[in-house]
Amino acid sequence: MTEVGTGAPSSPHEDPGVILMLAFQAGDDAAFEQLVLAYQGAAFAMLRRILGPHAMIEDLAQEAFLRVWRARDRYKPAGKFTTFLYRITYNLALNRVRDDKRKALYSMPRDADGVELPQQDLKAIGPDEEVDTGSWAQIVRHCLTELPENQRVALVFQHYDGLELHEIAEIVGSSPKAVKSLLHRARANLRTLLTPYREAEND
Amino acid sequence: MTDWLEEILDCDSGESVPDGFASRVVARAPNQGRLLRFPRIVTLAAAGALLLAVGFWMGNGAKPMEPVLVDPGSTNSAALELAELYSNRDVLQDFEILSDADLEFAFIDESAGTWILDETVEAYRVTQEPVETEGGQK
């Protein structure tokens, strides 16, 4: 099944994800698998951008969808399905961020087998080096992790997931006005972080 | 003119999903419980019943907790207790349960510290004695 986008339907009941979730709620277990297939990419992308390039995210993504499964009986379509899913996924990511902060300051990132990953020195591909488009994704992800968590989350939800201010506010438990301010600061900070790389490419 | 920031952000096209992810989720899902939604009155009634039961137990039916110590009249049990005390003498010292001098005297060897067990049992007995109040014994 192809993954769905995040365009805004006129009512929740026209949202593809809501339709699948209601079918699942009515007893169609196959609809749950379709939900996973449709939204797994969005969930993974969101977790990667919020938690950074080295975080192990499959367990969180699994847990997010398992929570959707467990919430079958009490689900009520109040908006797009992505808002519902992202709220669950965001809370899981937030818990992971807070857990990581409590760990040792100098612990090294590890791969899925627990082997320490070599530290990627972004200065090696920084302003003094030639930058190719293949590493811009790495640079963007690195710079996103340099943003304060709330700015990063707001920017990811708006730019990559196409969420409106009120939807982002609902997910993070804030107000649309506060989200708008976060987005403004996030973009200003990101420009500061990315400008040296951009200037190096233009040289 | 397109903002360069938005263009650069678009360079991050997303995250690849591990093969078989959906299958793994679907395989695990049936083992999950389901969040049941009880009417509020039911949960309140359950909480109230639980409180009543606990209150009754504490007021009327609670038995005093069994002491951890064994009957000091049993020499076999006393010997086991002493052995345990001896092996944990470092802990006793660290927690200042006994002073260095007490430990030095009591643990010359494993059999020298019988008075420690007596002291500990006596201390426990004191905690179990009824407390006198203004209106009489409790």
Task: Output mean pLDDT of chain B.
Answer: 68
- Report the mean per-residue pLDDT of chain A as an integer: 83
Shape-level CATH architecture of the largest domain in chain A: Orthogonal Bundle
Total helical segments of chain B: 7
Biggest beta sheet attributes of chain A: none
Report the span from N to C terminus of chain B.
86 Å
Estimate the helix proportion of chain A, in percent: 55-70%
Quick summary:
Chain A has 203 residues and is mostly helical. Chain A has helices at 16-25, 29-51, 58-70, 81-102, 133-146, 149-160, 165-172, 176-202.
Features:
heterodimer; A: 203 residues; mainly alpha; Rna Polymerase Sigma Factor, Chain: A; Arc Repressor Mutant, subunit A; 2 domains; 8 helices; B: 138 residues; two-stranded antiparallel sheet; 2 strands; 3% strand
Overview of this protein structure:
The complex is a heterodimer of chains A (203) and B (138). Chain A is 64% helix and 0% strand. Chain A starts with 15 loop residues before the first helix and ends with a helix. With 203 residues, chain A is an all-alpha fold. Residues 120-131 of chain A have low confidence and may be disordered. Chain A has 2 domains: 1-105, RNA polymerase sigma factor, region 2, helix turn helix motif (Rna Polymerase Sigma Factor, Chain: A), CATH 1.10.1740.10; 120-203, Winged helix-like DNA-binding domain superfamily/Winged helix DNA-binding domain (Arc Repressor Mutant, subunit A, Orthogonal Bundle). With 138 residues, chain B is mainly α. Among the domains of chain B are: 37-66; 75-137, no CATH class. Chain B is 56% helix and 3% strand. Chain B contains 7 helices and 2 strands; from the N terminus they run H-H-H-H-H-H-H-E-E. In chain B, strand 1 and strand 2 (136-137) form a beta hairpin. The longest helix of chain B is centred in the middle third of the chain and has 22 residues, at 40-61. The mean pLDDT of chain B is 68. Chain A binds chain B through residues 32-33, 36-37, 40-41, 44-45, 47-49, 57-58, 61-62, 65-66, 69-74, 133, 136-137, 139-141, 144, 159-160, 187, 190-191, 194, 198, and chain B through 4-6, 8-9, 11-18, 21-22, 24-26, 28-29, 32-37.
